[in-house]
Write a structure and sequence with these properties.
three-stranded antiparallel beta sheet; 13% strand
Length: 110
């Protein structure tokens, strides 16, 4: 009796998806025309689904490892802010300069 080779005939397993180190933060390459350097893109937790793009500081944009470290830090900060919002923190609102200054001065009395 011949033994069938079931493994070779079986359908291959789908590749296992790996979790990203920086959930919610994407790294954007510099534009070819030199208009922008390295940037990140993320959803602002305070403003809902609005995408924000932010330039990476030059000292963090030197090597790939440094860029990824910067993305990880931003990702951790965004996760912390999302947790604060779930726990009941007030979202950052759009305020006029006068309102923001008055609130800040009330927080830090002379």
């Amino acid at each position: 009796m011949e033994r069938s080779n079931e493994r070779s005939q079986a359908t291959p397993r789908p590749k296992r998806r790996r979790r990203r180190k920086t959930p919610g933060v994407s790294l954007l390459r510099p534009q070819k025309d030199g208009g922008h350097g390295w940037r990140i893109q993320f959803k602002d937790p305070d403003k809902g689904d609005r995408l924000r793009r932010k330039a990476i500081p030059p000292e963090w944009a030197v090597t790939e490892d440094r860029r990824i470290d910067y993305c990880e830090r931003v990702s951790e900060g965004l996760a912390g802010r999302r947790r604060e919002l779930v726990e009941g923190a007030a979202p950052h609102a759009h305020k006029s300069v006068l309102e923001a200054t008055t609130e800040w001065l009330a927080t830090y009395p002379a």
